[in-house]
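User: Predict the structure for this protein chain, please.
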Amino acid sequence: MTGAAVVGLVVNPVAGLGGAAGLKGSDGVEVQRAALAMGATPRAGERAARAVRTLVARRPGTRVLTVPGRMGEDSVRASGAPYDLVRPPSGGSAGTSAEDTRRAVAALAGVDLLLFAGGDGTARDVLDAVRALGDQAPPVLGVPAGVKVYSGCFAVSPAAAGFVAAEFDPARTAEAEVVDLDEDAYRRGLVSPRLYGSLRVPAARAALSGRKSGSSGVEPATAEGVAREVVARMRPGVRYVLGPGATTRAVGRALGLATTLLGVDVVERVHEGGRLVAADVAEAELFGLVSGRESALVLSVIGGQGFVLGRGNQQVSPRVLDAVLDGGDSGRLLVLATQQKLASLKGRPLLADSGDEDLDKKLGGHVQVITGYRESTIYRICAASEEFDG
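Assistant: Here is the predicted structure, written as structure tokens:
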């Protein structure tokens, strides 16, 4: 952008609430209430503030335009950036409904670039608003703040969103897909991403997370080989935290256990099999289970994106990481990925976005990735914000 850029901001203040609570999404008032009752805290506003802080640090003089309260103003104020307000028609729902998001996007139609903080559900709402605006719609960029971030319109981290916004050239845009899941079906273990359309985003492929690729094409024997190797490395008396995913569920099967596909489970090795300590745990319960106990994390890589932490496994919070890794013992982090998944990254690093950038950076370096039975490789991992730290 040349001259004084105008960047808009819309925040879905309840995005991501259900993650740490183990609710696998945040759609719906009842889910949001349940998450809050379980001690979940909103994080979308804080992540939006990080994006704006990076933006104005890299491009002083940027004019930020946003909407009142939790849907944007609070985040810009927290970032310390100057801003102007636009007041969309009130929806009467404190800024938490899909219609509130659509109204806010419409009110900010005249900006050069629109940042929105949320997850895949928020991206769908933004897409609806953009379609209604037609040729008047600005390019957009997602600040990742949801439980599910499968769509390709999101930056890899809040800092990356700010970096891309600061460097944005209106003449260089690309189309990015918007996908989402049926959350009720997702909670029943049914993963069926649906393509809803595409959004015009900055052409900055390296800084965008890209669309998640599924594991349906992975042969079961490949996952079983990874699982056999994990079980062979397990030691009695250690609590193993199994993250979501088909490969980690294969570890449960190898132990003779019925673990969950999309939840976080805690298991122990017992003789030739295993013991299920707890299934589908929320962050608070998980922290209690690993505190003061020798523990290890068993996490799979999200295909096409490379995320190990921060996408669908927010139950593994910074304090849980601290408790398990106990000062940075990398041997307590087992990363699983088939060779096919690693190849899909085309050399891009694995990513950590736990919500604590300092902790993510401590995890940076190289990690052993288990790719099969008696097979592993060394692969680079870094904080999602590392290359775009403003």
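The chain has a mean pLDDT of 86.
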